[in-house]
Amino acid sequence: MVCLKDPLVQKVSDLYEKISKLDSLKPSKDVDMLFTQLVLTCIPPYPIDVTKLCQKIQEMRSNLIRHCGEAEGLLEKHFSTILGSFDNPLDHLEIFPYFSNYLTLSRLEYNILSQHCSDVPSRVAFLGSGPLPLTSIVLASYHMTSTIFHNYDIDPSANSMASHLVESDPDLSKRMLFHTTDVMSVTDAFKDYDVVFLAALVGMDKKEKIVVIEHLAKYMKPGALLMLRSAHGARAFLYPVVEPCDLRGFEVLTVFHPTGEVINSVVIARKSPDLSTRSIDHGYINGSLMISCKCAEIQAFNPLNQMNMIEELAMEDHLS
């Protein structure tokens, strides 16, 4: 059982105490400093299994993830407001401090997605798009330039801000659609999508996340792809973790755990015609943990070229 004696857990706990005492999580010098320290603490590879944390630390982690989610939402609103003041907001996306990370993560997700799609998807749903839908914008602008993106968010103000960012762009304004609704109320519409992206903060803990995944398993069309974000190691103090066994109703194709500045793990799975799941293999490649089905492809994380992709291999052959 991992508890406060662990040096990383102690440091995260100390930062949590300071974050909990903040009057507001809106962007400010103190907020930015504390969350930057938290992220820098959790980025380096660290041999910790969050499922083995003691109950007290489990509760702290759960609260911390919610604080991170709230702070991230407020940060996005802040910069969406600033971007919305420009005549052409999309020309100024680089003012968002983590825009380069979104460029990297979106390209990574597209490269993994393309390994499992013979054609560019025609219709994609992004669940939990928020006031600053950078993933959808980057994918639509650079990687999936004919795809129609249906962005879902429960917050009407977030959708209003997001739609304002693209309305001056003649192309994206036609291909980026925004729906204000709880994703749990969406049913038959999911059968229209080739790919569904699930944002990291839709479902703030394991139980909430599984409820959403089960809903998608019920209504997505067989063969459609689900791409979602998870976390691994110490990064699990920042975001909820999705394990392959949580994806009932899906065939898990690839789980990718980056080791660089990109925080989120990437999971891609295919909607199955039944509710069974495949067996999962584990292995380490170039310092990044890969979890993959017997028939899945393996992605390598190369520090010199983060988007480098290894040729298709069978995991059992590689590990033997």
Brief description of this entry?
The chain is α/β, with parallel strands linked by helices. The protein has nine helices and nine strands. It catalyses: 3 S-adenosyl-L-methionine = nicotianamine + 3 S-methyl-5'-thioadenosine + 3 H(+).
Secondary structure layout plus pairing:
Elements: H1 7-20, H2 29-42, H3 55-84, H4 99-114, E1 123-127, H5 134-143, E2 148-153, H6 156-166, H7 172-175, E3 176-180, E4 195-198, H8 206-219, E5 225-230, E6 250-256, E7 265-271, E8 280-285, E9 288-293, H9 315-319
Parallel strand pairs: 1-2, 1-4, 2-3, 4-5
Antiparallel strand pairs: 5-7, 6-7, 6-9, 8-9
Organism: Fraxinus pennsylvanica
GO molecular function: nicotianamine synthase activity
Keywords: S-adenosyl-L-methionine, Transferase
Main attributes?
320 residues; alpha/beta; Rossmann fold; 2 domains; nine-stranded mixed sheet; 9 helices; 37% helix; disordered C terminus
Polypeptide structure, described:
The protein is of the alpha/beta class. It has 9 helices and 9 strands. The chain folds into 2 domains: 87 residues, no CATH class; 221 residues, Vaccinia Virus protein VP39 (Rossmann fold, 3-Layer(aba) Sandwich). 37% of the residues lie in helices and 16% in strands. It has a 9-stranded mixed beta sheet. The longest helix is centred in the N-terminal third of the chain and has 30 residues. The protein is globular, with a radius of gyration of 19 Å. The relative contact order is 0.11. The C terminus is likely disordered.
